[in-house]
Design goal:
By secondary structure, this protein is an all-alpha fold. The protein is built from three helices and no strands. 84% of the residues lie in helices and 0% in strands.
């Protein structure tokens, strides 16, 4: 093989090894997270997740208020049934 052929093969190998990091995956990088976040935002997934969280929060608040109202009613009933002291 001629000197030019050896240089050409060495250059191809060098380019392959140097370009390998460019084509490897970036699964754990911040850039990948930002891309995923943007795609979810555009697809509406984030909006759906927010709505589900709001529904859950509203349900929790409603349950708490219902419990408070029940406690108040019980207290009012106890006050009405207690004999008055003179």
């Amino acid at each position: 093989m001629s000197n030019r052929g050896k240089k050409f093969i060495a250059m191809i190998i060098f380019v392959l090894f140097m370009s390998f990091p460019l084509f490897s995956g970036c699964e754990g990088s911040d850039t990948r997270d930002k891309v995923d976040d943007t795609v979810e935002e555009l697809a509406g997934k984030k909006q759906v997740d927010r709505m589900k969280k709001m529904e859950k929060d509203i349900g929790t608040i409603t349950d708490r208020e219902s419990e408070r109202m029940d406690e108040l009613e019980e207290l009012q009933e106890l006050e009405e049934t207690e004999p008055e002291e003179e």
